[in-house]
Amino acid sequence: MNIPTATYRIQFRNGMTFDRVAALVPYLKRLGISHVYASPVFTAASGSTHGYDVTDANEIDTTIGGREGFDRLVKALKMEGLGLILDIVPNHMAASLENPWWRDVVENGEESRYARHFDIDWTRRLTLPFLGDTFEKVLEKGDISVKPDPRTGKPALAYYNSFYPLNPATYASGEAELPKGTDKAAIAELHDQQRYRLMSWREARRQLSYRRFFEITGLAAVRVEDGSVFDDTHRLILELVRTGAVDGLRVDHVDGLADPKAYLKRLRQEAGENCYITVEKILGGGEHIPADWPISGSTGYEFIAALSDALVDSEKLDELQEAFQKVAGQRIDMRDELRAAKLLMVDNNFAGEFAALVQLALQIGQAEDKESILSEASIKPAIRELLIAFPVYRTYSTRDGLPPEGREMIAGVIDEVRQSPHGPEPQALAFLERVLSGDVEQQAGGQASVFRTRFQQLTGPLMAKSVEDTLFFRQHMALALNEVGAQPMPRAFSVDRFHREMQTRLRRQPDALSATSTHDTKRGEDARARLYTITEAPKLWAEAVERWGEMNRPAVQSLEDGPAPEPAVEWMLYQALAGVWPTGLYPEDTEGLKTLEERFLAYAEKAIREAKLRTNWGDPSMAYERAVLGYARRLLAPDNRDFVADFSNTLRPFIRAGLVNSVTQTIIKLTAPGVPDIYQGSEGLDLSLVDPDNRREPDFNLLQRRLSVEAERLFEGEEEWLSGRVKQNLIATLLNFRKQKWSLFAKGTYIPIIADGERPEPLIAYARVKEADAVIVIAQRLSLRSNTASFEARWHGRKIRLPDPVRRQHFVDLLTKQTVDLDGDLDLELAASGRPFLVLGSA
């Protein structure tokens, strides 16, 4: 199989084209990249900024260069010996009239050739929730009329710039019969004859007739489990793989599929054994990719979670929690907070999907026993509690039932629900346990299979929206821990746990991607690395927040429902600002403050809307949002000099310690089990906020100029750290070493190393060994807690007792190129020469 040694993620669109990436290929080769990892390149909805709203899966988007531009990129990659990985989207397509398949379904309804391509409930009319109000009110206002579609010339129901095609049978007697002008009654009658129903976007959460991607009604789910649908949606994908243009595939949101395992088996069969395949999959604590999936692993969110074990100061988390709870004015129970978030999702955001499960369960009960005493009143709370208690994204039931691990999971969830204070009726719970386990009467087997599929396709979005897009925007103790793939429940962090995770990773998915930044992470990897340092100094941070709060007290407004922003949101704003603050920004830089303000205000608005407490996307509170954004704007106002100066000065030790964390996590990513994935621009400093901020185009010209071949000189001045050159050139050095020693990193054992001394905890060390090849990694952690002026002082008197496989070997310091002869212990102060890390490769 063609396993990458390192991937580089490129976000196409927003000005990024195939030809522009082709021009970057020599730079990526110098950086040590083996494969470009491309965001979706297939034709997407007009103005798409991401490409996941595909309108034609068998055409390459002309806005980024079309097929000719794609071929030029492939040629440029192959000339330099690089490969290409494509991000594919089998779960959904754009529910857009630009999508010819969707348009055909809208026009022809269930008779359309593509009616079964999309996951639509055809027991009712197709719902199109794209009106600003109800159909009746929009019609009354005169916003709907019958006009020729400018693209086709056929008659359509026109709503502003959207033209919904009419079913030909409804005007078969001639277009002259169509309503004219303002004949609202005739327009309403014509609308009633269509296979679709136009309705308000607000009705989608309860009345949608098609499965969507999460809460996005503009993305309709695709039934790729159907063989013909697979063929139709993968024709071009497989052509590109079979011709050798594409070396690997990244499968988006695999948990949205009806049967991920069956899909992946078909994909592997069609793509061949040499195609590198990974899946976007969020793994819960202790959860692993199913061993029988024919893939190389996940896209690496669990790797981000593992890194927190190496960089968080677990000993002081309780102190930080106490400080935050004091500011919030209440004790916080994360289990209760998670339950509240999930309840909101079940009863509101996913009310339609929940109601469909209830009706399916009642139908199964009736099919098994016509005299069934199960009622909606008993089934509804039972399903609700199961959804709320589900601890991972989903199980993987098929028509053949649940695999053993799935049965164990269901049994555990049922037991938890049974013993909870919210436990539903025992009979209803026992019935659902049978349904989810596949133990139903034969006559109900088909409906039970549908129920299991729908249940599994709901638990994933429910978890994602409850945790990542609600809870993590409500609880602000440590924003660095509020990341995709992180667990919401409090836990201990330790280096020992990190080592165990890496050994497990080597055993279970050694060829999976190891990510630190992606287009979906809540903040950039270097912002997260900096914010980890707050866990080392909770008292210093809490005192600073209190001081800053007093400085900015005049900007807090008193609203009917409380102060705006409330103290917990103030804490969040200060911490988010600390993460995004550029290393070279000073209080006098008015232009720099203004540039940061634009990004920071967009983040603040998104953060408070995602929290869904005092405002939200569907029903925003303008008064509250004006107050919070006004407060956020004040934080960066040039005339707020005392605060800006205090904030900048207070942040300096956090910035310095964060830069050490950045290098440490980078070294780990490049040397630990897994395939390093570099998100565009994050080879430099990535201090981005949540999307769309993290999807901005990097300054590639600057990055190319900064990449040097003289890496050994990078540690002589602070500017090299502050600019990101240290990190960038370290990446180039280690990635090129990985290329030379690919087998060592792909298959080498992982051996934790324990430092001698009274306080070994500020270090993380390990070795990778395969036969005569080895690499030794020693890196600083908890740099802020160490509170010493130099790395020599931090490592003074510290020695590493090396494990037997590397005790007596000749090594080369990969940064200085100096030879190091090892014979037992390693003196860190002497070997590292003032650096906060040491990476030795076998000579």
Entry summary:
The protein contains 30 helices and 28 strands.
Can you put this structure into words, describing what you see?
- The protein is of the alpha/beta class and 843 residues long.
- The protein is 44% helix and 15% strand.
- It is built from 30 helices and 28 strands.
- Strands 16-15-14-5-2-1-20-17 form an 8-stranded parallel β-sheet.
- Helix 18 packs across helix 20 and helix 23 runs parallel beside helix 26.
- The two termini are 28 Å apart.
- 49% of the residues are buried.
- The model has no long low-confidence stretch (mean pLDDT 94).
Which bin fits the share of residues in helices?
Answer: 40-55%
Give me the side-by-side strand order of the main sheet. 16-15-14-5-2-1-20-17
Range of strand content: 5-15%
Poorly predicted sequence stretches spanning 5 or more consecutive residues:
none
- The DSSP helix count reads 30
Largest sheet: 8 strands, parallel
SSE class: alpha/beta
Mean pLDDT, rounded to whole units?
A: 94
CA gyration radius, whole angstroms = 28 Å
Distance between the termini: 28 Å
Query: Which shape, going by the Cα principal axes?
Result: globular
For the secondary structure, the number of strands is 28
Question: What's the helix and strand layout?
Answer:
Blueprint: E1 7-10, H1 18-31, E2 35-38, E3 42-44, E4 54-60, H2 66-79, E5 83-88, E6 92-94, H3 100-108, E7 126-131, H4 135-140, E8 144-148, E9 155-159, E10 162-165, H5 184-192, E11 196-200, H6 204-207, E12 212-213, E13 216-221, H7 227-242, E14 248-251, H8 260-271, E15 276-279, E16 297-298, H9 301-311, H10 317-328, H11 334-349, H12 351-368, H13 376-389, H14 404-419, H15 426-437, H16 445-468, H17 495-508, E17 513-514, H18 525-532, H19 538-551, E18 557-559, E19 562-564, H20 567-580, H21 590-611, H22 622-635, H23 641-671, E20 675-679, H24 700-706, H25 718-723, H26 725-740, H27 742-747, E21 749-753, E22 763-770, E23 773-780, H28 783-786, H29 791-794, E24 799-801, E25 810-813, E26 819-821, E27 825-827, H30 828-832, E28 837-842
Parallel strand pairs: 1-2, 1-20, 2-5, 5-14, 7-11, 14-15, 15-16, 17-20
Antiparallel strand pairs: 3-4, 6-13, 8-9, 9-10, 12-13, 18-19, 21-22, 22-23, 23-28, 24-27, 25-26, 25-28
